[in-house]
Amino acid sequence: MQAARDEAQRPRLVVGIVVDQLRTDYIEYLQSYFTERGFKRLMKDGAYMRDVDFKVRGLDGASATAMLYTGAYPSNTGVASAMIFDPQTKKTQPALSDPKTMGNFTNDSYSPENIRLSTLSDEIAVDGLALSSIYSFAADPQTAIIMSGHAGSGACWINDNTGNWATTTYYKNLPAPVSARNYSSPVASRLDTMQWKPSMPIDKFPGLPQQKKIYPFRHMFPRSDREVYSRFNASPMGNTEVTDVAIECLRQMKIGSNGNAIDMLNLGYTLAPYKYVTDGDFRAELTDAYMRLDGQLGRLFEAIDKYVGAENAVIWLSSTGYFDDAVVEDKKYKIPGGEFSIKRAESLLNSYLSALHGNADYVDAFRDSHLYLNHKILEDKKLDVSDVVADARSFLTKMSGVSDAFTLYDILSPSTPEEESLRLSVDPKKGGDIIVTFNPGWTVIDDVNYPVTQHPVRETPVLTPAFITGGGVKPQTISTPIEAVSLAPTISSILRIRSPNGAASKPILLNN
Fold it and tell me: What strand order describes the sheet that includes 434-438?
């Protein structure tokens, strides 16, 4: 009888929400501007964790989402960053790129094959004997695929070339409501009528200096702009589109009403600084984006209540644990810094190593702070790899703009907190021979590839939150740090299923 009661109490739906760059201080500062249905509901009805610690360096949306869904660190997940350099092809490509698959409503090819561990979605599928409906919706393709995992039913994202909802042939076809939306109400048909302006009078926005309240922002989405869909996806309009599709699938596909199997709905939102502002100051847009997302969460939660029932759902939401507010500073402020040219660094290092070991192209590539040496040349010249790596590291640390340089050996045998953080961050199978860190205030110029890109360096440690409601979790606020890798095991414990197979932490002890 007890087993029957436990089975009856199992939720019918688990909802996973990842909000890129969500900050605790913004949520708490803007509380009085939120409705009762969105963030406030999460803060009052379940566990509110104010300080989720990801412990790693160089996080982005893909690596953080992989951490959240596998319960493991980037060194093990197979997704150490969104873009990965392949020493074999000498190309940088998305971490989940898979030429064996085809895109549906896109020319891009993705699959979860490169995720090395099981995910929370996979374990739900195993628990349901493959009867669970598991779908993910996000603007970003890799976020959607990570959330659906290997065994999910579908992962859908917004194609940044056409605005259509897209998927990969690794999964089933697009869900019928999503496919119908591509034909009946595509984003492209609505762009010219869209504009993003403040959702309330700009002079009522809290925390803005007076000069930001004179001219309210206004962003348009003209189809003539080659980056229009990237701008759309980075704006609150992209978040709204994700919510619209998720609610329609809840309504039409009866997700959460699948017999005894637990279904899963995953959503990816963004609260990243809107880098398309003209003056580099995105505070007004960011404040408005928080208030607008609060409304979207309210719509989503009301739909869950209506179609599944609040008592039948477990909802968890997490930030991605970082905040990228770096912009190239105007020189009039005289903030110390400079420009670090990747092309120049490669050339100088090659010249230095040639002087020591004979003329050759020793540097294979310098990508995203990882320096790769040409091991074939080292082998042909019968050079000791560790000696050449040590020479390269010594040279790099003396270059202007470089804070430090770490060899892969340093990272795999850490002796300092910084090396330990890198050990958790760097995938030894894909990482470079040397990992370089740069001084804040400097701008790293990747002028090897076209188009040339700029990466301002800025350290912005912030508190980032997570929430869990439903499943018997009582209202509570936790201010002590919580490890990000403990969230997946905690949700697994609430659902009474296995944790992902590479989980690095025990579940959090919550008041149930």
Answer: 363-367, 370-373, 434-438, 402-407
- Determine the Cα–Cα distance for residues 390 and 468; give it in Å rounded to an integer: 47
In this structure, are residues 22 and 268 in contact, taking their beta carbons and an 8 Å threshold?
no
3-state secondary structure of 401: coil
End-to-end CA distance of the chain: 21
What is d(CA 202, CA 220) in angstroms, rounded to the nearest whole number? 18
Burial 98-131 (b: 16+ CB within 10 A, else e): beebeebbbebbbbbebbbbbbbbbbbbebbeee
404: enclosing H helix or E strand: strand 402-407
Radius of gyration over every alpha carbon of the chain, rounded to an integer in angstroms: 24
- Look-up of token digits 């094959």: 113
Nearest to 194 by CA among 216, 218, 217, 221: 221
- In angstroms, rounded to a whole number, what is the distance separating the alpha carbons of residues 415 and 436? 17
Contact 497, 76 (CB under 8 A): no
Structure tokens at 151: 């065994």
pTM, whole model, 2 decimals? 0.95
> What tokens appear for 16 in the block?
């996973």
| Location of structure tokens 């201080």 | 25
Ranges of beta strands (E only) in 154-241 are: 154-158, 165-168, 195-196, 219-220
- Under DSSP, the state recorded for 311 is G
From 486, 422, 466, select the one nearest 49 (Cα to Cα). 466
**For 157, what's the count of Cα atoms within 13 Å in the CB-facing half-sphere?**
30
Cis peptide before 186 (omega within 30 of 0): no
pLDDT tens, residue order, the chain (512 aa): 344 444 447 899 999 999 999 999 999 999 999 999 999 999 999 999 999 999 999 999 999 999 999 999 999 999 999 999 887 788 889 999 999 999 999 999 999 999 999 999 999 999 999 999 999 999 999 999 999 999 999 999 999 999 999 999 999 889 999 999 999 999 999 998 999 999 999 999 998 988 888 889 999 999 999 999 999 999 999 999 999 999 999 999 999 987 779 999 999 999 999 999 988 889 999 999 999 999 999 999 999 999 999 999 999 999 999 999 998 888 888 999 999 999 999 999 999 999 999 999 999 999 989 999 999 999 999 999 999 999 999 999 999 999 999 999 999 999 999 999 999 999 999 999 999 999 999 999 999 888 899 999 999 999 999 999 999 999 999 999 999 999 999 999 999 999 999 999 999 999 77
Smallest CA-to-CA distance from 247 within 297, 311, 294, 310 is with 297
